[in-house]
Amino acid sequence: MTSHPNVQHLEYPQSEQQHGFAIKMMELLVIPTFVLDGNCKVIIWNRACERLTGVSAYEVLGTSDHWRSFYSEARPTLADLVVQGRTADIHKLYTQHGHRNDAGNNLCVENWCDMPRVGRRRYLAVDASPIYGGDGSIVAVVETLRDMTDEKRAQIALEQLATRDGLTSLANRRCFDDTLRAEWQRALRQQQALSLLMVDVDNFKEYNDAHGHLGGDECLQRIAGAVASEMRANDLVARYGGEEFAVILPNQSLKGAAIVAERIRSRVEQLQLPKRKQGRDYVTVSIGAATALPSPASSPSQLVATADTALYRAKHMGRNRISLPDTDTI
């Protein structure tokens, strides 16, 4: 039988004709496929796999270097985990994983891969199926790959549409509500403080009347950027509605929240956005701050109400300032 350049043959208890036909079928599959033997060495790397990874079969056949086709740093492929009997580790390496059949031996996962040779990340759906010998041991594992990058990016875009404000690119009200509930529960479990800032643009109607709606939109975008620039990695800034923004500050004391609020107030003032086309009267914000130590008897809505009350107090006291609950305005 003529040896094919893209495969390394194994001796199986079947006719050479059947063996060659099976390998030829595997080679011509339009689905990217590779096969590992019981020592995690590549014995088949088909043409579709070459096209997907940019790695030729002769580079990986007989080696255990196939991981380099998918990742920049060493880590096992799904087929490796199956061969090595490490399927319990799948959840550590893949966020999406499951089984294709009731027997549970056909595994499927999804993840982003670096794809070093082609130079761009791809989101791959992976299936791995073991092949057993007569004694019940695994003699090979077949791994098939599907490029789902376009579908994944479309899904991410849809999720962003559902959770992001179209004008400012900040989190929207829905995302704010969901995040506040989640952070409230986490603070309750960990017995940590949770702070909230309500930020409102002062006299925004006056700005809109002077600059038009497009000018008003640009003003909100500039302020959104100023607010977001003062955040830590775990903080959330959302467009709460109209010209009002909300900031969730996990594990932050009232004193810390007041410091953040003052930085935001100052940063917006430094933008020097003139309320009128001529003049030195600039756009400012008023901020209400509140902090809670969540308990089973309290709720996130109480935190929002307290911050709202503080915001109203800041407005009433003359705007362009911050206010804390039951304290003098700062």
Automatic annotation (TrEMBL):
UniProt key word Nucleotidyltransferase: yes
Matches recorded under CDD domains: GGDEF, PAS
Xref: Gene3D superfamilies: 3.30.70.270, PAS domain (3.30.450.20)
Domain PAS span(s) in chain numbering: 24-64
Keywords: Nucleotidyltransferase, Transferase
EC numbers on record: 2.7.7.65
Entry's Gene Ontology molecular function annotations: diguanylate cyclase activity
Keyword hit for Nucleotidyltransferase: yes
Domain (PAC): residue spans on this chain: 103-160
Reaction equations catalysed: 2 GTP = 3',3'-c-di-GMP + 2 diphosphate
InterPro entries xrefs: Diguanylate_Cyclase (IPR050469), GGDEF_dom (IPR000160), Nucleotide_cyclase (IPR029787), PAS (IPR000014), PAS-assoc_C (IPR000700), PAS-like_dom_sf (IPR035965), PAS_fold (IPR013767), Rev_trsase/Diguanyl_cyclase (IPR043128)
Domain GGDEF: 192-327
Residue ranges the record marks as coiled coil: none
Record-linked PANTHER family: DIGUANYLATE CYCLASE DGCM-RELATED, REGULATORY COMPONENTS OF SENSORY TRANSDUCTION SYSTEM
Protein name: diguanylate cyclase
Organism listed in the record: Janthinobacterium fluminis
